[in-house]
């Protein structure tokens, strides 16, 4: 499978897909030290974001989620890339600030909300984000 | 899908193209970049800002704030600060490591050095920061954003940490989303008249309705009908905070109450709603139950004041206070301006005599204040109920302020179930 989207932050990253069916607030929902989903009420509680291509429909909750993204990038526990179904003003900001501070940045790709639903079928598959494209499956 | 060009004034272009590194240039770069991502046509001048980025989440946030200070940053509009990770009036209360405390303090100081006012509250609208109807502002902190848009009728998007200070430095925000008149119209009608009138008049109803609202509407804009005309600012504050925790609600309208909803037609901008939602008593009860991780047994602490307690809420609590001390710690989180007022009026001792611990400049879910042995926390806040398990490790029970007082006396869950049966 291959999808095209708008790169909100252009770059390259690869990892297994982690497709969230339920939205997640990074603040209060992700531990910046481990990169683990820390909200015990989230269905993917305990999974680590590190090294994954994180796919989510949209973000919810605290506007401090950009700060958590910055800390994940600083600590090396961030996902390898993010694919999101709506323009997002919060998480990608953590990536822009990380770049200003010289931390490693990750690609951030916006796709259609329908694409996010399709990606649920291939959760866990290896994938690559490159520029405006997401490729799923071993190529 | 493609990105639209963003128009900049010659002055804005000059800041962006500045020869020397400066905080203005860095901030303008981020504001413009975010404007492009969000599809803004241009930038809008803002009248004020409220900064959520002053809370310590890790050393990266401190480095960013200090970088802005080193680069000579100074806010260009009146700017208030949200909570930090320390209670500056009672520093001994926080159980953080020395490193964390040192860094949290540096971060708070850096934001003051940028010219922000040390208000340290998540409810700046209770401390005199009240933009006018239609005024553009850049606010962070999800409850404050919901309040500014919905209750005050000011215009702000949900600005994340970093974006808020960048907007404050350059006095601009991308003209997009809730800054645009036609993006502020409700598309969802929420009809609450299937719920009992008695329930709709209680304080405890509003965090539950807010939680339901956040789940049901996500980031769409609802207009709520059927709320009593007596609805208070504290009730709307509690509802907005809960809706912004369970969903991404940045603006809600209440027919006949909030400034952009004098009537249903105006709130909808004359259009037909996408959906009409009618919450049923059973659904509300389920949402109320889901705010708790247990429903009976011993409790180990009570916390109220998320968003920060108002003077009116202090008055309500004072009336309910028992004569004998509480059996468990009872935390009230508030802003320093409310605290000073209570102090000036000589009422502190009444609260302290029964063991109320007033937490200032911060709150119990953003920094370690609760006793380390853990247990179950009772709260009247939908926002605290939402975040407590993940951020403190405590179990949580949601109840009314009256339930909180009664349970704190008995050290076990004691709730009035009659409204919900």
Model description:
The complex is a heterodimer of chains A (139) and B (421). Chain A is an alpha/beta fold. Helices cover 20% and strands 25% of the residues of chain A. An 8-stranded mixed beta sheet of chain A has the order 1-8-7-3-4-5-6-2. The mean pLDDT of chain A is 92. Chain B has 421 residues and is α/β, with parallel strands linked by helices. Chain B is 38% helix and 13% strand. A 5-stranded parallel beta sheet of chain B has the order 12-11-10-13-14, sandwiched between helices. A 4-stranded parallel beta sheet of chain B has the order 8-7-6-9, with helices on one face. A 3-stranded parallel beta sheet of chain B has the order 3-2-4. In chain B, helix 9 links the parallel strand 7 and strand 8. Chain B is globular. The interface between A and B is large, with 45 and 48 residues.
Key features?
heterodimer, A: 139 residues, 3 helices, B: alpha/beta, 5-stranded parallel beta sheet, 4-stranded parallel beta sheet, 14 strands, 38% helix
Write the SSE topology.
The complex is a heterodimer of chains A (about 140) and B (about 425).
Chain A: E1 2-4, E2 6-9, E3 12-19, E4 53-56, H1 65-75, E5 81-84, H2 91-100, E6 108-110, H3 113-119, E7 126-130, E8 133-136
Chain B: H1 10-16, H2 23-37, E1 43-45, E2 49-51, H3 59-70, E3 79-81, H4 98-113, E4 138-139, H5 142-152, H6 163-170, E5 172-174, E6 188-191, H7 197-200, H8 205-217, E7 222-225, H9 233-246, E8 253-254, H10 264-267, E9 275-277, H11 281-290, E10 301-309, H12 311-320, E11 330-334, H13 336-344, H14 348-353, E12 356-360, E13 376-379, H15 382-392, E14 395-398, H16 401-410
Parallel strand pairs in B: 2-3, 2-4, 6-7, 6-9, 7-8, 10-11, 10-13, 11-12, 13-14
Antiparallel strand pairs in B: 1-5
Helix pairs in contact in B: 2-6, 3-4, 5-9, 8-9, 8-11, 9-15
What is this structure, in a nutshell?
With 139 residues, chain A is an alpha/beta fold. Chain A contains 3 helices and 8 strands, in the order ββββαβαβαββ. Chain A has an 8-stranded mixed sheet.
């Amino acid at each position: 499978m291959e999808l095209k989207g708008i790169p909100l932050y252009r770059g390259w990253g690869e990892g297994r897909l982690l497709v969230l069916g339920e939205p997640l607030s990074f603040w209060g929902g992700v531990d910046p030290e481990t990169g683990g989903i820390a909200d015990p009420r989230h269905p993917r509680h305990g999974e680590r974001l590190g090294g994954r291509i994180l796919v989510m429909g949209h973000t919810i909750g605290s506007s401090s989620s950009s700060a958590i993204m910055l800390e994940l990038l600083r600590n090396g526990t961030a996902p390898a890339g993010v694919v999101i179904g709506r323009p997002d003003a919060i998480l990608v900001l953590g990536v822009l600030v990380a770049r200003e501070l010289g931390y490693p940045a990750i690609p951030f790709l916006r796709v259609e909300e329908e694409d996010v639903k399709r990606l649920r079928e291939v959760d866990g598959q290896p994938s690559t984000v490159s520029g405006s494209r997401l490729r799923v499956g071993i190529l | 899908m493609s990105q639209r060009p963003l128009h900049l004034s010659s002055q804005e272009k000059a800041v962006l193209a500045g020869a020397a590194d400066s905080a203005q240039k860095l901030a303008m770069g981020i504001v413009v970049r975010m404007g492009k991502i969000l599809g803004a046509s241009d930038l809008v001048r803002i009248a004020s800002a409220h900064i959520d980025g002053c809370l310590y989440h890790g050393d990266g946030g401190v480095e960013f704030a200090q970088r802005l200070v080193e680069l000579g940053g100074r806010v260009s509009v009146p700017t208030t600060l949200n909570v930090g990770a320390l209670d500056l009036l009672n520093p001994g209360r926080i159980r953080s490591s020395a490193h964390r405390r040192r860094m949290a303090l540096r971060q708070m100081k850096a934001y003051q050095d940028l010219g922000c006012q040390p208000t340290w509250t998540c409810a700046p609208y209770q401390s005199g920061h009240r933009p006018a109807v239609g005024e553009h502002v850049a606010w962070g902190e999800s409850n404050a954003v919901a309040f500014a848009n919905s209750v005050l009728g000011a215009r702000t998007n949900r600005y994340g940490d970093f974006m808020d200070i960048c907007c404050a430095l350059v006095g601009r925000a991308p003209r997009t989303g809730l800054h645009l008149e036609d993006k502020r119209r409700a598309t969802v009608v929420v009809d609450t008249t299937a719920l009992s009138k008695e329930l709709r008049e209680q304080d405890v109803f509003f965090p539950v309705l807010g939680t339901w609202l956040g789940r049901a509407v996500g980031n769409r804009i609802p207009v709520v009908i059927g709320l009593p005309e007596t609805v208070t600012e504290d009730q709307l504050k509690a509802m907005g905070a809960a809706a912004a925790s369970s969903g991404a609600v940045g603006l809600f309208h209440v027919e006949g109450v909030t400034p952009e909803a004098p009537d249903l037609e105006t709130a909808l901008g004359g259009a037909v709603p996408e959906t009409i939602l009618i919450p049923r008593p059973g659904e509300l009860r389920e949402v109320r139950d889901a705010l708790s991780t247990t429903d009976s047994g011993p409790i180990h602490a009570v916390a109220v004041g998320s968003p920060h307690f108002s003077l009116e809420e202090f008055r309500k609590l004072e009336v309910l206070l028992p004569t004998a001390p509480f059996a468990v710690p009872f935390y009230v989180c508030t802003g320093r301006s409310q605290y000073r007022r209570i102090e000036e009026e000589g009422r502190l001792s009444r609260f302290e005599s029964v063991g109320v611990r007033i937490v200032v400049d911060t709150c119990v879910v953003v920094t370690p204040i609760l006793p380390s042995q853990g247990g179950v926390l009772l709260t009247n806040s939908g926002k605290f109920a939402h975040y407590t398990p993940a951020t403190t490790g405590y179990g949580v029970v949601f109840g009314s302020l009256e339930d909180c007082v009664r349970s704190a006396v008995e050290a076990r869950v004691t709730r009035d179930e009659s409204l919900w049966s």
